[in-house]
Automatic annotation (TrEMBL), chain A:
Keyword terms of this UniProt record: Coiled coil, Mitochondrion, Ribonucleoprotein, Ribosomal protein, Transit peptide
Record bears the keyword ATP-binding: no
Keyword Ligase: no
Annotated compartments: Mitochondrion
Family named by the database record: Belongs to the phosphatidylethanolamine-binding protein family. Mitochondrion-specific ribosomal protein mL38 subfamily.
Transmembrane spans: none
Predominant location: mitochondrion
GO cellular component, one term: mitochondrial large ribosomal subunit
Domain of life: Eukaryota
Designated name of the protein: Large ribosomal subunit protein mL38
TrEMBL record, chain B:
SUPFAM superfamilies given in the database record: Translational machinery components (SSF53137)
Organism: Psylliodes chrysocephalus
GO CC terms of this entry: mitochondrial inner membrane; ribonucleoprotein complex; ribosome
Protein name: Large ribosomal subunit protein uL18m
UniProt cross-references to InterPro entries, sorted A to Z: Ribosomal_L18, Ribosomal_uL18_bac/plant/anim, Ribosomal_uS11_sf
Gene3D superfamilies: Ribosomal protein S11
GO biological process entries: translation
Similarity annotation: Belongs to the universal ribosomal protein uL18 family.
Amino acid sequence: MAGTLWNTCRNINNNINTSLLISLRQGHHLRGKPPGVAKSLETKLAKANFKDPAIYYKVDIGLPPSQISKSKLKEERLKVLKEQRKSPILEKLARERKLSINLEEVYEEWLKSTGPKDIKRIIEHYGIFEHLYGDAYFYSRVPLKVFYENNEGSSPVYFGNVIKPSEATQKPIVSYECDKNTLWALTLVNPDGHLTEQTSEYIHWFVGNIPENDITKGETLVEYLQPFPPKGTGYQRLIFVLYKQEKQIDFSSFKRDGLCLNLSDRTFSTYDFYKNLQDHITPASLVFYQSDWDKSLKDFYHNILNMKEPIFEYDFAPPYIKKQKWFPIREPFNLYMDKYRDPKQINKEFLLRKLQNVHPFKGSPPPIPFPNAVYFEGYVPSWLKLEIRKSRLKWGRINEIENQ
Amino acid sequence: MIKSTINNNFLLNKEVKRRFASTSINQLKNKVSPIFTNRNPRNLERLRIGYKPDGYHVEYPDKQFWHKLLLKSSGKYVTASVCHYQNGEILTASTSEWAIKKQLYRTIDTSSYVNLGRVLAQRCLQVGLIEISCFIKPNSPNDKVSLFLKAVEEGGVSLTEPPQYKPSRPWDIDRPEKPWEVTE
């Protein structure tokens, strides 16, 4: 029955107008070009963010790579590998899945072989070259080892690991391998922690004219100061850079007397520092760690920096609210109007309603065990019922005053 | 709804990024500006408030990550890497590297997968990555890939990333806990 009815209807429609049937299809028309042809967001962004390599190119300012014959290296490596393939002990361990390589040894070998390239990628990922040297970069050719000694043990510095301020109160132990009769300079800078200028750095430690690798014999220009990231600002990068000096340099313009607890005196710019001395110094190595707030800093701010501890909170974007209409059709009137009122006024109303039930000496009444089962006396409009229920269940705007 | 979230994300990325407003300032000796800027590009991701792409839930490969783990194997070598959603591959460990190859018997067998996992976990911890997303699904619980993933986890790297924290709007039903206010 239904089938025949449908057929007759279709016949009638066909007889009347065929184009009418096509126009009745809703929601099937493509807006713009089809997916294969139209540009995706990715291609559009790539075009918008494109930088011409002829203008925006990077410059290598580091030390040249060490001159080792590649064929000789390959020969040596092949020899080791061939011996390994013959070893029955290693074969048995690998077969029984018990082979466990020495991670320390891997790390040491990695620093000497493919390490510098990988480290450069990590440093770029953390945006360090961009913030310290602008359009320049360098490879860490001299493996630099830095670690903090503290009561809980030692905290080594790698390439972005987290070290808390309480672990870094004392100056770290620095070691590196170098040739005889060479001079070095070491800086520890923090590009994220400046309390007044947003694009400046603080210098936490500066030792210049270091003969070979003995830091203690170097000329301490700025005394060591521990990291002090304020509460709520997250993780700051603390960057050790080792420079190789061509000759003895007069750093007296960077000299700061005493502990230098006046932080504005510690304002530093690695870019300017390197720009002025680029003929005499070459960056040789870079290691860094990240540090965030911990409890020990309260004492540090009060007693050592002699200031009140600053506390910050992230400034989120305000929620998007569309333009108010004269006649908002199909919108709940109370919720719609609330969006355009002063939120402080709304919170005040909630607070006043709450305080009506609070006795000044006896305190607030006990919470309702079953908020949805409370009887509504007399006539209450449905929107108001909903509002009361929401307040009883602690849903929505009431949280703004409840959680304070 | 969609429009508003996109709007927020773009704001986070461009204008309001890395700005922190101060609630208490006192000037005794050192001045403190009311607006503090942390330029560390990884800071917001680590605080869980940085932008994290959403993608589509049926899309492959998955796009919801800050950092994700990748594993590729050629006929001779295995390569594991960590990929960032903007910067691409940022960290790699491969059995073709001399540092690892030097101590292995073969570069593609099970024990090389396990040792590669250990090395990758070590490098992740050294560069400050403690959580990375992993969309690799091993075929069986005892194959090479699952042993590799197990080795990464045993090395101290979590293979799941927390969701992005989005600020609650005044009309939202509840107020989720702020991750940076939770004391350890």
